[in-house]
């Protein structure tokens, strides 16, 4: 399945054996029901009450006398500890322990068993206690009221030393939240007691709310109150220095006026009327370290035939409402939708029917979300019981008493990528898998292996292009919190194809009104995201349009010989040298493109990453572009190994095989992918591509690929071609066709390597053109010295004499011509050979 649940805690394995051992010791010592006590009905009453911020788990059970026993499982030491025994037959539904384990707060109600006498005071339904448990001493009644009360200790971020004051939240069914400030002191050594227990100071934190959620990891309280029938979401942040602030409020377009009262993550509630509360809406708030803020909402369903749920991407300024129809709806659909926080993703699923992975950071395109229906076997493997999503991807199964860590399964995502027929699922699975791996070479290798075998598997997008962009993005994503705004994570800008089984409506929403002036940590990132939504028009994502324009300008200048300052060009080329020591082959055009991309991307980061060191920015740029090049190399190497090619392929001595054609094809697809985004290619790519093209393509196809820019003739490839191929008629035609397509400077150099009349003719023409380009006709002696010429042909003799005179007078202009053995005599010989060839002599 796409979602993997790894058990961090299991009541049956981590607590039950310990309790049985405690019972055995108790019975052997004749202590009866002392110690851990004898459990009634073989541990049926054992269940989890709460998970605290430090990961410790509070559980409860009853002994054979009905006494309520509280225990704690330490997630660090993996040890159990008995906290307190309450000698009355009541039912616990809320409990919390302070970080020092010196105070315990609990709310209890009358036991639901028939025939049990009322243990509570007349007129009260709930008893809320505060107990000194280090050691067990005084018990203070905080509330004895006719409404439910939930309790939760605050956990300061600083846990290295105990604080003199503990803070306890009391959440009432009467729709108010209070904070008790509890001063403690040490007496008689380590004995901790409550000071002034008769009067504990308290503050009213919130009132008249209809929904509240506790974030135990970040110590935040979210709640919704109604103002003129509008649902206003608010958040209070609690700090280690005993302060708390109202951070923001934002209106939500949801109806809660008739929804009653709902709490989320205030412990594991076993006493509330489950039928009553299951009929209400599902609403929860999820955040992550990047500054995202999502509100997930599913209204009460009038019919299970169609499900609607919404996600408010508050950090993006819009909401998305999804609607899906259920097939084979049976009576077993009673649990409702489950939302799970998976950090970069939010999972929405209905057991046995559908599973939806929503990309929180990049929610704009539906193709980046993974939607699987009940027909997929991956759905059936998900738990069918209600799950409670806690902070940090923790998931609590209250029914079984298991605490899981929810992870995306790389192997399942890879399997889905390989097996699905839908482009949208391929796209989503690819991005999910890369997020899971984040640069893992083994994962990338598996994806590349699949791409090399299925390069044409996708029709809606370019698979190679998408993989290169997404994988390069994840390689530097963690370097700064704003990377998602500066670099593209996908090559796809729009997606108009429907996703089977689901419809979508996107709406703009109001942005939160921030209630504080200065921000730190998460709040700084959230505020940055909101500022980006307000003012970033257009968006900041980098693209190579400037590089494309500048590169074409420099190439044009090179051809015309009017290139700008040498220092500018040298600086650009030096940028490429910083990239890699992999410049095994000198490819000036690719080196120029790399250097330009380094320069432009560095300027882009410097503009938008205020406060980041210049050296770090430069390293991020180099890492990103190096990753691009490495991925391309990896794809080519994988295809090369897959087809078992060897180094002798690089010589023009045989017709291309099917394996060589397959590698040529994937290199052509790589070229198409990089060209549209104007990305650089590794040095040597064009040489290898051209060599394979010469061997695999008929001449007319080869020349068409050269003329259309699919094949780029590099100096290395052409030199190898001239040396490896003999001068058969077929090879002569190939060589000449390629030479005439070379840039003039490279063409002249190549012609000197080809010992052939045709190359001599080309060299001679170039030499004559250069000599005569500034020639001014002068009066000449009509008598020609015939003895100096090997052939008596007056037009040729006259022309050669002119060339000889120009060469003699212009030695200063062409001091190195003699090194190439190109002079008037060479021109004469070439002209005669060419004439003889034309006449068939």
UniProtKB/TrEMBL annotation:
InterPro entries: GSAP_C_dom, GSAP_fam. It comes from the Eukaryota. It comes from Pan troglodytes. Pfam families: GSAP-16. The gene is GSAP. Residues 629-736 form the Gamma-secretase-activating protein C-terminal domain. This is Gamma-secretase activating protein.
């Amino acid at each position: 399945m796409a979602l993997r649940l790894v058990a961090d805690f299991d009541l049956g394995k981590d607590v039950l054996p310990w309790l049985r051992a405690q019972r055995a010791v108790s019975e052997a010592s004749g202590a009866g029901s002392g110690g851990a006590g004898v459990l009634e009905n073989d541990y049926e009453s054992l269940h989890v009450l709460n998970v605290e911020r430090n990961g410790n788990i509070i559980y409860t059970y009853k002994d054979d006398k009905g006494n309520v026993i509280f225990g704690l499982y330490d997630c660090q030491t993996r040890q159990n500890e008995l906290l307190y025994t309450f000698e009355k037959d009541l039912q616990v539904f809320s409990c919390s322990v302070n970080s020092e384990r010196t105070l315990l707060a609990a709310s209890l109600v009358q036991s639901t068993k028939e025939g049990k006498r009322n243990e509570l005071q007349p007129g009260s339904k709930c008893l809320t206690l505060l107990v000194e448990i280090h050691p067990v001493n005084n018990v203070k009644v905080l509330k004895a009221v006719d409404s439910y009360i939930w309790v939760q200790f605050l956990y300061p971020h600083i846990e290295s030393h105990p604080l003199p004051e503990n803070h306890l939240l009391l959440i009432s069914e009467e729709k108010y939240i209070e904070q008790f400030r509890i001063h403690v002191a040490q007496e008689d050594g380590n004995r901790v007691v409550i000071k002034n227990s008769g009067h504990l100071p308290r503050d009213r934190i919130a009132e008249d709310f209809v929904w509240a959620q506790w974030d135990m990891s970040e110590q935040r309280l979210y709640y919704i109150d109604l103002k003129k029938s509008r649902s206003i979401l608010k958040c209070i942040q609690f700090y280690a220095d005993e302060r708390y602030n109202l951070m923001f409020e934002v209106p939500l377009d949801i109806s809660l006026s008739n929804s009653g009262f709902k709490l989320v993550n205030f412990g594991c509630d076993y006493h509330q009327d489950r039928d009553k509360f299951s009929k209400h809406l599902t609403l929860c708030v999820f955040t992550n370290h990047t500054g995202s803020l999502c509100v997930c909402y599913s209204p009460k369903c009038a019919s299970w035939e169609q499900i609607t749920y919404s996600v408010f991407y508050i950090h993006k300024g819009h909401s998305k409402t999804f609607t899906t129809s259920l097939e084979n709806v049976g009576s077993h659909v009673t649990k409702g939708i489950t939302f799970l926080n998976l950090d970069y993703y939010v999972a929405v699923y209905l057991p046995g029917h559908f599973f939806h992975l929503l990309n929180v950071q990049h929610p704009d395109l539906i193709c980046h979300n993974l939607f699987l229906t009940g027909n997929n076997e991956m759905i059936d493997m998900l738990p069918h019981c209600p799950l409670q999503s806690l902070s940090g991807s923790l998931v609590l199964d209250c029914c079984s008493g298991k605490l899981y860590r929810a992870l995306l399964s790389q192997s399942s995502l890879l399997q889905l990528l390989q097996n699905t027929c839908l482009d949208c699922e391929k796209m989503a699975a690819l991005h999910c898998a890369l997020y899971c791996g984040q640069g893992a070479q083994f994962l990338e290798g598996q994806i590349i292996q699949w791409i090399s075998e299925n390069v044409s598997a996708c029709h809606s997008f370019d698979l190679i292009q998408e993989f290169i962009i997404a994988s390069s993005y994840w390689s530097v994503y963690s370097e700064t919190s704003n990377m998602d705004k500066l670099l593209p994570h996908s090559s796809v800008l729009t997606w108009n194809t429907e996703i089977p089984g689901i419809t979508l409506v996107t709406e703009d929403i109001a942005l939160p009104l921030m209630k504080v002036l200065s921000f730190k940590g998460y709040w700084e990132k959230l505020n940055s995201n909101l500022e980006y939504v307000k003012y970033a028009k257009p968006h900041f994502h980098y693209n190579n349009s400037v590089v494309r324009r500048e590169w074409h300008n420099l190439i044009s200048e090179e051809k015309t010989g009017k290139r700008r300052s040498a220092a500018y060009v040298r600086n650009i080329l030096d940028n490429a040298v910083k990239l890699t020591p992999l410049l095994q082959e000198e490819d000036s055009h690719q080196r120029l493109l790399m250097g330009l991309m380094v320069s432009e991307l560095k300027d882009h980061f410097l503009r938008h990453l205020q406060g980041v060191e210049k050296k770090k920015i430069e390293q991020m740029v180099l890492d990103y572009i190096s990753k691009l090049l490495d991925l391309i190399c990896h794809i080519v190497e994988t295809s090369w190994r897959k087809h078992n090619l060897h180094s002798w392929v690089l010589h023009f001595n045989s017709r291309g095989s099917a394996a060589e054609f397959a590698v040529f094809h994937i290199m052509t697809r790589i070229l198409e992918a990089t060209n549209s985004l104007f990305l650089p290619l590794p040095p040597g790519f064009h040489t290898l591509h051209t060599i394979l093209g010469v061997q695999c393509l008929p001449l007319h196809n080869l020349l068409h690929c050269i003329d259309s820019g699919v094949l780029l003739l590099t100096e290395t490839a052409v030199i190898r071609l001239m040396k490896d191929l003999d001068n058969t008629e077929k090879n002569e035609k190939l060589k000449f066709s390629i030479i005439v397509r070379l840039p003039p400077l490279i063409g002249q150099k190549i012609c000197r390597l080809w010992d052939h009349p045709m190359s001599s003719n080309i060299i001679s023409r170039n030499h004559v053109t250069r000599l005569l380009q500034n020639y001014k006709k002068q009066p000449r002696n009509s008598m020609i010295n015939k003895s100096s010429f090997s052939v008596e042909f007056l037009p040729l003799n006259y022309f050669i004499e002119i060339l000889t005179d120009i060469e003699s007078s212009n030695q200063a202009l062409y001091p190195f011509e003699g090194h190439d053995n190109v002079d008037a005599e060479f021109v004469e010989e070439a002209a005669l050979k060419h004439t003889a060839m034309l006449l068939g002599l």
